[in-house]
Specification:
It comes from Sediminicola luteus. The chain has 351 residues and is of the alpha/beta class. The chain is built from 13 helices and 9 strands. Helix 4 crosses helix 8. The structure holds nicotinamide-adenine-dinucleotide and zinc ion.
């Protein structure tokens, strides 16, 4: 779990006092990985840059990649005499995962691709801080850093992955475009549906999942896009992330990973594209999802897979089926009897 967290509108102003005791010396900088959307934005003025500290803007048009992590690690190793005091990620799930992975690869040898899987990271990473600027993924609280690798999209799941410190400031999510607010928010909603309807469910996951679900309903069925909703969605994301920490996601994520791997469809919208066709698996959850789309006037694109050839389709099906824990959570130990490549292809063809 994340050992330290501050919360509240404006709490980013505490960053200086949070970082000060963690600064090893004036030559050991803090490295800020910042979503390029904030270039020239007033938010940068709130970052307490001192001494050798460095801001690196990251374009998030594509989701983070293992080779991108390797390049950033090489850059930090080549450009600074001292090992950095810490890595700070300021942005959405893409940046948060990138920051976690860079912190781990600064102290663990090899490529980030070597650590895609479960418990492969052996040493603690550099001190790392997560500051989310959009709510939903739960990446601020989770034990994984999801990366696209040469062979798969899979997280670096380990006890060393979670942030050492998280700063939850609901003011930072104010400028998120409406459609993205919805897609990333739905990632949280779908985490809840998959966790609460999964066979891995237990009292720990249920307690967090139910709270996150309640908050998602308040935000997306009854709320306006105001500070109250931003506060609620920030905490929904946190609780949703905690819920899947001790359970798993399910069918929507398995299929969404295939879409993302082949077509580069981004996580939030990818989940939505898949989820609307999953009423056989999650009837109540999908019905409510349609209600939320309607209320927020979201019209999802169609025919995403219409140009996919047979080889591409086989790749997507293979990626989706390879995520065995997700299927087992969704359908139980005998999931292989219930899911065929044809069934998955049929779902992809609808998207
Ligand atoms: P994102 O980080 O890719 O950001 C989405 C878009 O929103 C970007 O264009 C970004 O520039 C913009 N944005 C973010 N904050 C903004 C702000 N305050 N104002 C204006 N624009 C803003 O999207 P995401 O949905 O947060 O994250 C998706 C990533 O998270 C995927 O790579 C996915 O694999 C990963 N993920 C990780 C976990 C985990 O537990 N580690 C869980 C779910 C998803
Ligand atoms: Zn997700």
């Amino acid at each position: 779990m994340v050992p330290r967290v501050v919360y509240g509108p404006g709490c980013i102003d505490q960053l200086d006092s949070i970082l000060m005791p963690k600064r090893r010396n004036t030559e050991a900088p803090f490295i800020y990985l910042v979503d390029a959307v904030f270039e020239d934005k007033p938010l940068l003025g709130k970052l307490p840059l001192r001494f050798e500290d460095r801001l690196i803007f990251i374009d998030t048009t594509e989701e983070p990649k293992t080779e991108q992590v390797d390049r950033l690690v090489a850059l930090l190793q080549d450009n600074f005499e001292e090992i950095p005091s810490g890595i700070i990620g300021l942005g959405g799930g893409s940046i948060l995962d990138l920051a976690k992975a860079v912190a781990l690869l600064m102290t663990n040898p090899g490529s980030a691709a070597d650590y895609q899987g479960w418990d492969l990271v052996k040493r603690p990473g550099l001190y790392h801080v997560g500051i989310p600027t959009i709510s939903g993924t739960g990446a601020e609280v989770s034990r994984t850093a999801v990366l696209m690798g040469p062979e798969k999209k899979l997280g670096l799941n380990s006890d060393h992955t979670p942030f050492d410190q998280v700063v939850l400031d609901p003011e930072l999510t104010e400028g998120v475009p409406n459609h993205q607010w919805f897609y990333t928010g739905m990632d949280c909603y779908i985490h809840c549906v998959e966790s609460l309807n999964g066979t891995y469910l237990n009292a720990f996951s249920q307690s967090y999942g139910e709270k996150a679900m309640e908050l998602c309903k308040e935000v997306f069925l009854n709320g306006e896009r105001d500070l109250a909703s931003r506060e609620k969605l920030m905490m929904a994301s946190w609780h949703g992330g905690m819920s899947i920490a001790y359970s798993q996601v399910g069918v929507a994520h398995a299929l969404s990973y295939g879409l993302s791997f082949l077509l580069g469809v981004r996580h939030g919208i990818g989940n939505c594209l898949v989820f609307r066709h999953l009423s056989d698996f999650y009837p109540e959850g999908v019905a409510l999802f349609h209600e939320m789309c309607e209320k927020h006037k979201i019209v999802l694109p169609k025919d995403i897979c219409s140009q996919v050839d047979d080889a591409g389709m086989q790749t997507m099906v293979k990626v989706a089926l390879s995520l065995e824990p997700l299927w087992e959570n969704a359908l139980g130990a005998d999931w292989k009897k219930q899911v065929s490549p044809e069934l998955i292809e049929g779902l992809y063809r609808k998207i």
